[in-house]
Amino acid sequence: MNQIIDSALLLRKENFCEHHLLAYFFSQSHGLVKGILQYGANGKNSADLQNFNLFEIHWKGKNEDLGKLKVGLARSNQSKFLFCKERLYIVNLINNLLLDLICERENNSEVYSCTIKFLDTLSANKKENLKNYYIYEANLLNHLGFSYDLSRCALTGSCSGLYYVSPNTGAACTKEAGDVMKEKLFVLPQFFVGQEDDLDQDLKNADKLNFYFLQKNFHTLSSGFLKNRSNLLKTFGL
């Protein structure tokens, strides 16, 4: 019998059978953990079992088993997004990405830390939330092995004035070096390199760039992710 004791964010819960739920958690040190919560549907803690609430979890089972879960609420995060449509769409997108891309019982502590940090930075500033979400996506790509190379221009070696990103390599180049083939390149969102010019245009550029690399590198993106992303873009007019 194996066990996992960890901090974790609830991502999904489903009715499993009478008085039982199948719950999916993103844990600090063990990646995606799923298991059966006994009496979860009608138990005293059922009201706490909301997506992105933080729990202390105790999982027991055999390697290939679903296993059984006992959980205790550590922190509710509902007030950060529940009553704001834009923030809810963003959090739902993160939920989709984690369920689609994070492996079971594989340490992804850096992604976990980024997720907690993102939840803590949600604010009333809608565009700032969206900017931080696109930065979160880029960090997720990086942690999963598909990072952009924004350290210097791949053509000239310059560390400043980066403007384009190659769809083939994810490497950046300056405007002067890339203009000759600009139709084949993505425009780099300047907030990816700590600069800020036209935020509205940067948000559009970030969406195009990230979405391309997510689709290129992962074939497991769910219909839920695509639907939530579409809703988000419509809400922000992108």
Explain what the structure shows.
The protein has helices at residues 85-101, 109-121, 126-143, 175-178, 199-217, 223-236; strands at 2-17, 20-27, 31-38, 54-61, 68-75, 162-165, 172-174, 186-187. The longest helix is centred in the last third of the chain and has 19 residues, at 199-217. 34% of the residues are buried. The protein is built from 6 helices and 8 strands, in the order βββββαααββαβαα. It is of the alpha+beta class and 238 residues long. The strands form 2 sheets. The protein has a 5-stranded mixed beta barrel with strand order 1-2-3-5-4. A 3-stranded antiparallel β-sheet has the order 7-6-8. The termini are far apart. Helix 1 (85-101) runs antiparallel to helix 6.
